[in-house]
Amino acid sequence: xxxxxxxxxxxxxxxxxxxxxxxxxxxxxxxxxxxxxxxxxxxxxxxxxxxxxxxxxxxxxxxxxxxxxxxxxxxxxxxxxxxxxxxxxxxxxxxxxxxxxxxxxxxxxxxxxxxxxxxxxxxxxxxxxxxxxxxxxxxxxxxxxxxxxxxxxxxxxxxxxxxxxxxxxxxxxxxxxxxxxxxx
Length: 184
Fold this sequence. Notes:
The protein is mainly alpha-helical. It has one domain. It is 87% helix and 0% strand. The chain has 6 helices and no strands. The N and C termini lie close together (10 Å).
């Protein structure tokens, strides 16, 4: 491996290590204060919906489509803007709706996984993992739904925190593997 390639790989592995450490810290904070993390995520969703509304507006106005499609695009962008602003200015209330959606998604995703596991005839032995993941998703969705709307105070922040911790661990492991490859 050339010196430039080795140096670039070393820099990349260091960047991955720091990103992993940062993700771990954010994950731990999100789990420690899930209500704050949940509201922060709702604010982020509001900002993203507003950005989507503006993008949709420019796409609708600048498109080479019929007037009817332009009007539809403008109406959709106005609705997205109203929704995004509502989320942004009512983040606590927004977490309640987002939590309900998450509970439904977990339950549906779990059912689909269980059905897929039952129908899996591949014989590679992984169908039990698919079924287990599906059952756990269903249970988590039911737990979130059963505690709804008060689960809005903890569910989103906790789930995002767990995801950040797993992502952080993955990035750190990837960085370590890259450093190990450099030593060889």
